[in-house]
Design brief:
The complex is a heterodimer of chains A (288) and B (319).
Chain A lengths: L30 E3 L6 E3 H6 L15 H8 L6 E3 L3 E3 L8 H12 L5 E8 L2 E8 L10 H17 L3 E7 L7 H20 L4 E9 L1 H4 L8 E4 L10 H8 L10 H6 L5 E2 L5 H11 L8
Parallel strand pairs in A: 6-7, 7-8, 8-9, 9-10
Antiparallel strand pairs in A: 1-2, 3-5, 5-6
Helix pairs in contact in A: 4-5
Chain B lengths: L9 H20 L4 H20 L3 H8 L7 H8 E6 L12 E8 L2 E8 L5 H6 L7 H16 L4 E7 L6 H5 L2 H13 L5 E10 H5 L6 E5 L3 E3 L3 H9 L5 H8 L3 H6 L5 E3 L10 H20 L3 H13 L4 E3 L1
Helix pairs in contact in B: 1-2, 4-13, 6-8, 10-11
The chains are: A alpha/beta (288), B alpha/beta (319).
Chain lengths: 288, 319
Amino acid sequence: MLKDLFRKPKYVTVKPDKPAPAKRDIPEGLWVKCSDCGEIVYTKELEKNQKVCLKCQFHFRLGARERIALVADEESFRELDSNLVSVNPLGFDTYSEKLIEAQETVGINEAVITGEATINGQPVVIGVMDAQFIMGSMGSVVGEKVARMFERGLEKKLPVVLFAASGGARMQEGILALMQMAKTSSVIARFNEAGLLYISFFTDPTTGGVTASFASLGDIILAEPGTLIGFTGPRVIEQTIKQKLPQGFQRAEFMLEHGFVDAIVPRQEIKTTLAMILELHGKGVANG
Amino acid sequence: MANTVLDFERPLLELEEKIAELRKFTDEKGIDFSEEIKTLEKRARELKKDIYGNLTPWQRVLIARHAERPTAEDYIKALIADFIELHGDRSFGDDKAIIGGIGRFQGRPVTVIGHLKGKETKQNIKRNFGMPHPEGYRKALRLMKQAEKFKRPVLCFIDTPGAYCGVGAEERGQGEAIARNLMEMSTLKTPVIAVVIGEGGSGGALALGMGDRVFMLENSVYSISSPEAFATILWKDATRAGEATEKMKMTARDLQEMGIIDEIIPEPLGGAHRDYETTARNIATAIQPHLEELIGLRFEELLANRYQKFRSIGVYQEG
């Protein structure tokens, strides 16, 4: 059914509410090995601990739906623009197939899910990117959904909370993908002029065109411990300068040290931290 | 003039050399070769049309990167009177991969900002091959805000393989610097005209590219990444760069068809590197009426149009 999507450009059926397949980061089985400390942890324990290693506090990556479940109040999330789907504007071979594959394996339509929700009772517009969906890359749909989030925030005078996770602009959409950086940044400029609050949250990994546009433009910029944050990815830098990069380079702690992140927030504290910030800003309107 | 000869240009250059030789012969030995010269000249003209009239995207990339291709500095010399270069970002340093300053374009004070490559190795090292660090983008932004204050239009020349990737660039926030430029340019209260003059590589190009009007020289390119990086990312094979250019849709015509740019500025036959003056004149002719039009707009209108221009880019389905 989804395969027809790219042949019949007129009308599509999407499955926005298909639940994300559980345990995507974690191999099937009862036990999982922490990719940081090597500790073997009981999967159920790990899940219960919000996918944070019980021994070393390593933060496993979360899918977009898992993240929403973690941050938004139960049953409060109402998805927006789930009917926006990517096409293959440059006629790039294998892109259409890649999209279908990503939709089927990751269980979401695009690399970002957006919607309205409440966080400890406070209404927000929320967006969460998923690095598993074609590297969380930004094509026209991601750019459009992000732009519409801020427009929704403007319209309803709501703050925006956006969790970034991306390898950058989506190569298969060429210059159109690059221009989403311009689009999202323009909308944020307007959002700012209205005096509304934008909290940007870096999650692992965020690089390229997303770092170089909306993710870096938050009034308050937060990150999970250990998150890779950069413009150029570390592998490309190593190839370019032909040197090994120092331990911790481009990690959240490094970015904090260099002044590009306001605070590092462990997963267990994200919701309460966001709620506190939201409360300090009222509904986000200065003299509202 | 061209020291660096591209392979596909070689037959033409050889022919031109032959013509020059025959002329020399005519002068020195007094033998009349005028018929032969005429025939060869005719053939050269046809060859020129043949070569440059049917350039492949990859050939355009090579022309856009040509060592002798005029740079922002050349166009400033040709088009901007009383140019005063202004340096530094007031925070970290002066990035020589970006040139910026004030001067007069057709009598009107303007701010000019451009990526700047060098033409030979030493210059290129000084200019970091036109790949800016964050302080370059911050210098550009500072000059744009200054232009806004003094109500000067901004003219940007885009010519970079991309923002520099390195340790210092990351430490000083390359991503943040580019993001901020995009956001600030979208609401800059003065007309902005951007001209892609050579390579428009990725976010590092776009960071000077949010113009009310965006132009491209005929043989310039503008893309999400270099074709080499594109081939590496998608096919793990940088040698397929040529093939990548066919897929990427990065020529001026491609971008015009997609509605990303407003106008293509013609280059003299043979490319900008063969005739700086004509190219500079073509740029002036192309941007002049647009500049007039933009200056005549109220800010609200100017900004609303600019917003709409970038807000509307994207191709997707809404089911």
